[in-house]
């Protein structure tokens, strides 16, 4: 393929028009078509081992990253950008030896066989060299010299472990590509590899784990047969609308045996409670090694640690995942590795939007429609930092169908009234408390619905969000499709319709970080006021991340009544049409209010904290294998339930939320306005 593109060059500080042509595994570029025809190239980019990325907000930009350098390109439009991305991806695959349909070079199976043989030969040499070092150490040497040899042996052993990992993954990939290959014949071929099962042996990890040379839960030593290690995929899933997201090659848990081993007189019994939780016996028949844990205390520990450099710490898992996806691919049916999970469900993350309940209710009591709109926007912009306080690019657990989460907040400096609610999100709560409830109402597509209210203030918020994730090359984008409606019941049910920004996990090949991006709106049709806000993604060159800019306007008025700028995770400023700029929101000026939840072991089986408690405890203790196993159990059980519903013809009906005539909308059944009307 050949054609013009814009290429960014720092030398002249801007975009330069260049003509590009692909020859073999190289992208050549020229300053004009004439020079391209004459072969007078300006430069070239080697595509072997390159990674193509796209921008989630700009439809014409894309990047090529190779050998630590990133080249920024721009097509004329989305169609041209996508055409180049597809061609580049195919070329990169071909140059790496795994072109589709074997159209270029060797077949994938032949390529992996060749690489496996090369790695085995290297491993033999490496093991022999380590033995020579050990023999050298046994001779008469000075203390300093022996220390140097010890360091060399330790480094060589680490390298040996890495090579063995590489061989395992090559064998897995080869077995996946060649269905006729016998997995029980895959093994390391050097006889010395089983001599010291504790000194040079590491755990072989699957596609959802990390690995290390330290002592782990399941050490695998010596000549390693792979008949019990099924070839792993990057957790790509079946297409049935009733199927759970799962890896078809995972080692499955025997659910029938699990159910039979449950302890307690009520094993197997379950029923739905009025608040949406499902009551049933505990999963104590399956030992996750956390019976001693205080789960409530674990959930109170909200601190998240950086993932670190993914390429260095989880490189093999990451590269295995990246080899299975393409730029622009929908990741809805791809489960990402366990090590990137944060310790909360998606439903609980939505509850954190209300961690400043005083700002949520501040709009009530304001006589001016203009000031009410400003107050709503202030609450809205302040809510994101509490929900995404950590800059770590981790993702919450994907909520399963029927999962619920509920909590409540006590408003600072607001006395308890003594009047209890009889229904709503948390019956029995004080009317001066903000209560919240959420339910996963759909699995395909994944839709979460949530609702919050404070009866004494006559204010409620109802929302539904469909999360759609996409692979962008060097980033992962998550679009939040849906809307929320904030209702002021004391103002003749005055409503504010709110949309949500997209989220982006950046730099997934190195040290990931998170940012928001995209345009959102806050609209009050009744008063005619509206806000246009943009979450600005970090520019390719220079500039700061996490910035926002926006305006608050009124229909029929040309100039905005207020402009807003700043950083959504820091300080934001507002400037009225006539007046000086002032601090609009400082998200770090006061702490979030701690949410109150039912103790974990008193919750229903499908309430978020109890449902995910084993995963959460294992992640906190960095027991990735245990977290993966527990997560796999939850996903597999959901898949089994979906299959049973499909076979019986049963249709899943959410308990707490109903659909409306408006497409995709979900409304809480016991919302404040409905209860007041009764």
From TrEMBL:
MF (Gene Ontology): sterol binding
Biased composition (Acidic residues): 240-253
PH domain sequence ranges: 1-93
Chain residue ranges for the region called Disordered: 189-278
Keywords: Lipid transport, Lipid-binding, Transport
GO terms classed as biological process: lipid transport
PROSITE patterns according to UniProt: OSBP, PH_DOMAIN
InterPro entries per UniProt: OSBP_sf, Oxysterol-bd, Oxysterol-bd_CS, PH-like_dom_sf, PH_domain
Gene Ontology CC annotations of this record: cytosol; Golgi apparatus; membrane
Bias (Polar residues) ranges: 200-218
Ranges of compositional bias, category Basic and acidic residues: 189-199, 254-275
Membership in a protein family: Belongs to the OSBP family.
Name of the protein this chain belongs to: Oxysterol-binding protein
């Amino acid at each position: 393929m050949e054609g013009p593109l814009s290429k960014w060059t720092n030398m002249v500080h801007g975009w330069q028009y260049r003509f590009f042509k692909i020859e073999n595994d190289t992208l050549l570029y020229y300053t004009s078509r004439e020079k391209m025809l004459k072969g007078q190239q300006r430069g070239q980019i080697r595509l072997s081992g390159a990674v193509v990325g796209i921008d989630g907000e700009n439809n014409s930009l894309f990047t090529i990253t190779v050998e630590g350098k990133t080249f920024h390109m721009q097509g004329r439009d989305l169609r041209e950008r996508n055409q180049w991305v597809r061609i580049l991806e195919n070329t990169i695959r071909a140059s790496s030896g795994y072109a589709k349909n074997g159209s270029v070079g060797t077949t994938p199976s032949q390529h992996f066989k060749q690489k496996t043989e090369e790695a085995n030969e290297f491993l033999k040499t490496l093991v022999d060299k380590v033995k020579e070092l050990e023999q050298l150490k046994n001779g008469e040497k000075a203390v300093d010299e022996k220390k140097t040899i010890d360091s060399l042996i330790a480094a060589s052993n680490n390298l040996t472990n890495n090579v063995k990992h590489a061989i395992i993954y090559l064998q897995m990939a080869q077995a996946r590509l060649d269905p006729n290959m016998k997995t029980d014949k895959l093994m390391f071929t050097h006889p010395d590899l089983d001599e010291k099962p504790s000194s040079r042996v590491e755990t072989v990890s699957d596609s959802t784990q990390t690995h290390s040379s330290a002592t782990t839960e399941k050490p695998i030593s010596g000549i390693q047969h792979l008949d019990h290690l099924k070839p792993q995929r990057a957790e790509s899933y079946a297409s049935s609308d009733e199927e759970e997201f799962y890896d078809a090659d995972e080692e499955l848990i025997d659910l029938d045996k699990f159910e039979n081993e449950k302890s307690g007189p009520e094993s197997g019994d379950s029923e739905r409670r009025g608040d949406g939780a499902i009551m049933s016996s505990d999963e104590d028949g399956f030992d996750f090694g956390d019976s001693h844990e205080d789960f409530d205390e674990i959930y109170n520990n909200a601190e998240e640690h950086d993932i670190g450099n993914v390429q260095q710490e989880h490189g093999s898992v990451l590269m295995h995942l990246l080899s299975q996806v393409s730029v622009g691919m929908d990741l809805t049916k791809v489960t990402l590795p366990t090590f990137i999970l944060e310790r909360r469900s998606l439903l609980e993350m939505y509850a954190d939007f209300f961690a400043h309940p005083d700002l949520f209710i501040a709009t009530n009591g304001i006589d001016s429609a203009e000031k009410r709109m400003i107050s709503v926007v202030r609450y809205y912009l302040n809510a994101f930092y509490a929900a995404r306080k950590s800059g770590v690019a981790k993702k919450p657990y994907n909520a399963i169908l029927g999962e619920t989460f509920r909590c409540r907040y006590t408003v600072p400096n607001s006395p308890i009234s003594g009047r209890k609610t009889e229904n709503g999100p948390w019956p029995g709560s004080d009317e001066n408390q903000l209560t919240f409830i959420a339910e996963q109402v759909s699995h395909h597509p994944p839709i979460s619905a949530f609702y919050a209210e404070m009866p004494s203030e006559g204010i409620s918020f109802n929302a539904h969000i469909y999360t759609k994730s996409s692979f962008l090359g060097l980033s992962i984008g998550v679009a939040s499709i849906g809307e929320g409606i904030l209702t002021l019941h004391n103002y003749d049910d005055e409503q504010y319709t709110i949309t949500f920004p997209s989220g982006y996990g950046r730099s997934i090949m190195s040290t990931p970080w998170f940012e928001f991006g995209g345009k959102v709106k806050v609209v009050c049709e009744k008063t005619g006021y509206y806000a246009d806000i943009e979450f600005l993604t970090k520019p390719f060159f220079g500039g700061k991340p996490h910035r926002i800019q926006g305006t608050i306007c009124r229909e029929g008025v040309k100039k905005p009544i207020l402009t807003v700028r700043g950083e959504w995770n820091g300080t934001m400023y507002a400037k009225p049409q006539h007046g000086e700029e002032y601090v609009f929101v400082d998200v770090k000026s006061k702490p979030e209010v701690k949410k109150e939840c039912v103790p974990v072991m008193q919750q229903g089986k499908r309430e978020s904290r109890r449902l995910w408690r084993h995963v959460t405890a294992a992640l906190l203790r960095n027991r990735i294998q245990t977290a993966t196993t527990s997560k796999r159990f939850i996903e597999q059980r959901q898949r089994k339930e979906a299959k049973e519903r499909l076979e019986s013809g049963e249709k899943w009906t959410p308990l707490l939320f109903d659909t409306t005539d408006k497409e995709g909308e979900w409304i809480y059944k016991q919302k404040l306005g409905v209860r007041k009307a009764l």
